[in-house]
Amino acid sequence: EPEVTQTPSHQVTQMGQEVILRCVPISNHLYFYWYRQILGQKVEFLVSFYNNEISEKSEIFDDQFSVERPDGSNFTLKIRSTKLEDSAMYFCASSVGQKDSPLHFGNGTRLTVT
Amino acid sequence: GNSVTQMEGPVTLSEEAFLTINCTYTATGYPSLFWYVQYPGEGLQLLLKATKADDKGSNKGFEATYRKETTSFHLEKGSVQVSDSAVYFCALDNQFYFGTGTSLTVIP
Lengths: 114, 108
Hints:
Chain A is an all-beta fold. Chain A is built from no helices and 11 strands. Chain A has strands at residues 5-7, 10-13, 19-24, 31-37, 43-50, 53-57, 65-68, 75-79, 88-95, 104-105, 109-113. In chain A, strands 2, 4, 5, 6, 9, 10 and 11 form a 7-stranded mixed sheet that branches. In chain A, a hairpin with an 8-residue loop joins strand 9 and strand 10 (104-105). Chain A is globular, with a radius of gyration of 13 Å. By secondary structure, chain B is mainly beta. Helices cover 0% and strands 50% of the residues of chain B. Chain B has strands at residues 3-6, 11-14, 19-21, 23-26, 33-38, 44-50, 56-59, 62-65, 75-77, 86-92, 97-98, 102-107. In chain B, the strands form 3 sheets. In chain B, strands 2, 5, 6, 10, 11 and 12 form a 6-stranded mixed sheet that branches. In chain B, strands 3-9-8-7 form a 4-stranded antiparallel sheet, with no helix packed on it. Chain B has a two-stranded antiparallel ribbon with strand order 1-4. Chain B is globular. Chain A binds chain B through residues 4, 6, 33, 35, 41-45, 48, 56, 58, 91, 93, 98-100, 102-108, and chain B through 32, 34, 36, 41-46, 49, 51, 89, 93-101.
């Protein structure tokens, strides 16, 4: 069964550095998402992406965040200048459609900012 | 605004016990409701869903009924197994709103 893959599984970075988290969604899916989960807290929506542009974003997704689908297969989340509070598990997801379509999640990237 | 409130965990049960994990929601209109499960070391995966009032979603012995009058979507299973140990998330329409997750541990 096709799956969403995320790399790396764990990323450690110093405060102020840029990080890029990578995801390969399922190939026939059209909607792509990033979520984050701070340890012990809820899964929070960051951004959704459709037709090569952001379709929705949350308040968390401020100017330090950006997303890109550079080559038709990868879907990346960039954090420009990381802060300690960006430490979290970041999940990529994709779906065939919106609203009632189930999300298919990757296994996540654990980001640790020191 | 839209939100989901989920039962606090962790929950520990013996094998074959009955499970209920409560989920209530606040939303405008008629949202779809979902339960996702996260097994250790894996991403979330859809467990079941319901798209309108009184619908019952079911999968792998789990059930949840969409109750509009009580704005609830409680997850139930009649007899849990050790393999059901995971974190369970309730989610709301468009999947932009997730609960905090309830960790379930089933002991033999």
